[in-house]
C-alpha cells in the first residue's frame, strides 16, 4: 500500500465548523473526493466548545494574532512557478476585540475586609473577642459558598464554554433536516438541564423555574407571582392550540 497522499481532489473545504462539516459530508456522500482542512489547532471553527483552559488559550490567540509568522513561513514553502500561497486565517475570523471580565470578587479580599472590621472593635472583654472571632468565621463560611474566580478554576473540568451558544427546538426544522440527511449519526443531542440568571446584585446565579415543580419549590417569588408564572407556562405549552391569541 502506498503511503503517498493523493494530490488531486474534487473539492477542498476549509474549516470544520457546523456548515463546513455538513458540506464536506454531503460532498463525500455524493461520491466525490474531498480535502477537508482547518487552519486552527482545534475542531469546530466558530462553533467550537472549549474547557476553561482551552478558552483561555483561544482568547490569547485572538488578542495576539501571529499573521507575521504565517507570512514568514511562506518563504520556507517550496512552491512551483505557477503556484501562490494565500493565507486565509484572518479572512474566516469573525471575532475581534476579545476580552474577559471576572465579576465574582476574590475570596481573599473579602477575608481581609472581615479581619479589618474586626480589628476596629475595642478588645475590652473576652466575650467581645469571641464574638469578633465568630463573626470572621461566619463571614468566611458564607464567602466560600459564593462563586468566585478561584472556585471556577477548581471546578473547570465540569463544564465547557461555547463560542456561539445555541439552542435547537426538539421538533424544529433544523433537527428534522439533520435526522433526514443522516448527519445526526455524527451528532449528539443533549437536553439542557436548567436555565440560570444572575441575581440583582450580580454576585450569584438563580435557577429560573421552568416546570410546575420548579415554580412551587422556589423561594424567590411570592405565591401570587407563582400563580401568574404557572398560567404563563401553561399558555406556552398549549400555544399551538390557541396561537391566535
TrEMBL record:
A family per Pfam: GDI
GO molecular function: GDP-dissociation inhibitor activity
GO biological process terms, semicolon-separated: small GTPase-mediated signal transduction; vesicle-mediated transport
Cellular component, GO annotation: cytosol; nucleus; Rab-protein geranylgeranyltransferase complex
PANTHER family: CHM, RAB ESCORT PROTEIN 1, RAB GDP-DISSOCIATION INHIBITOR
Family note: Belongs to the Rab GDI family.
The protein's name in its UniProt record: CHM
